[in-house]
User: What shape does this take?
Amino acid sequence: MKKYILTALFVFVLATGARGAAVRDLNLEDLCRGAGKIFCGVCTGVETRDAELLYTFKAQRFMKGGPGDTVTLRMHRLASMYARAPKFIKGQEVLLFLHPESKLGYSSPVGFGQGVFMVSKNGAETTAANERNNRLLFKGMDMERLCPGSSFSGIKHCSMTGAGSLRHQELMDLIQKIVEKQ
Assistant: This one.
């Protein structure tokens, strides 16, 4: 009985904190600051074990954290359902911002859907967008300092319009620049 009460309390605490994180708007600098790992990769495994969700990714490029070619994201199933955490499918290419692992080995995307960018290929162009279509991704950021002159033209356009898919390579290069400055 005591074990069930502690488990319920643990899930409640995780879910309560997670719900607030899912609602607050985060810009790209906030996502970088909150992440222990930032990488681009492909989901290679999806597994459900008792109270856990396990997602395995083959990392193609790390911008923060790493090294290694495999990343396992371990989330508590009830907390992730309550917070509406993103779900991944095998073969899906993503750019992920993951919180540092807790003492129990759990993690989640920073800002949940805000820290998960789906990578799409349309002919020769590869783009990335989060669940909000990158809305408010650059709010409050000094874009002229980060993207001087004509560099990052797609990102500048998105920052002026407030939303839209971004060129994948530009986004990864900007993330690397932000991480190096932090």
About this structure: The radius of gyration is 17 Å. The helical segments are 2-23, 28-34, 77-82, 143-146, 153-161, 168-181. Strands lie at 37-49, 52-64, 70-76, 93-98, 116-122, 125-129, 166-167. The CA atoms of residues 27 and 105 lie 26 Å apart.
